[in-house]
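## retry 2 of 3
previous attempt timed out at serialization; input unchanged, resubmitting
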Amino acid sequence: MRRTPAQEIRLTAQVAAAGCAAKLGPGDLRLALGQLRLPRRDPRVLVDASTLDDAGLYAHGRGEALVQTVDFFTPIVDDPYDFGQIAAANALSDVFAMGGKPLTSLALLCSPDGTLPTDVIAAILQGGLDKMHEAGASVVGGHSIRDPELKFGYAVTGIAKRRRLLLNSGARPGDVLFLTKPLGTGVLTTALKQGKLEPGLLRRVTKQMATLNRAASEAAVEHGASAATDITGFSLLGHASQVADASNVTLALEPRADWLLPRVRDFLGQDVYPGGLARNRKFFAERVDEDGVAGDLVQALYDPQTSGGLLIAVAGRRAAALESALRRRRVWHVRAGEVARRGARSVRLSAGS
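## retry succeeded, writing output
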């Protein structure tokens, strides 16, 4: 979808000017949640926030569960249609990370009053609608409010087979780990906001963020994966730590330069990175053994991702079959390491070959 003249507006510049838009830091969020007085848990609630999973699960029918999630954020690209696509793919990702199939969604739109052309808003909504249709989900309504900052996203409901769920708590020693999208979207979109990202790389990172995790999820479910999570705002190391803690294991990762999108390390060397990266490292560093890995590569592993890939754990005897399935589905992937017995830290890094 091409932009109209009225859509020639730098959406990301609004975000930069407002000085906002990062996801609430993990430390602040944990402190706030710790102050809640929780009611007695409904026995039909299968998964809630206690295991830091990607979505909630609610028992539904015989052998099935509803998967529920919500996500919205400020623009990270300038093209309004692309922004809508990315916001939808990002919201859908939590359902795929649980091994679910999206059913319906509700759009969430916060828009500046009188400063954003209506065709820009229409393009955002169209991008999201088209991506939801691609995923097989129906947009059944939504809610909009006036807000000084533009924000967009969705609440999504899906369904999953209870015996084939992908949870944070399912990783077992001996499992092989796969990562299904390269890292660095936070760094590159920060470079975009600073006017430093070349058009070709912008097209690449935009395409990646708008790509659904459906194919990776279907392959993981088909081949009996033990656990999965999607890599989003808390970074690879943050989300890997959550899987390790929920499963009472240690994830042994072997990061390499080819895990990253182009120029990520260059921009890190120029101190071009989002504020969320530093917050992630401050909160999760004590859970990570970083020894033996280059400093800029470690830094990239704390980069907050938008619509990142899945981190999948699968039994060693099934790893080759899963890898073949990912290849057949043309899903970018790397073997990221393995699951070990619980050690002193949640995640242990070692230099990849």
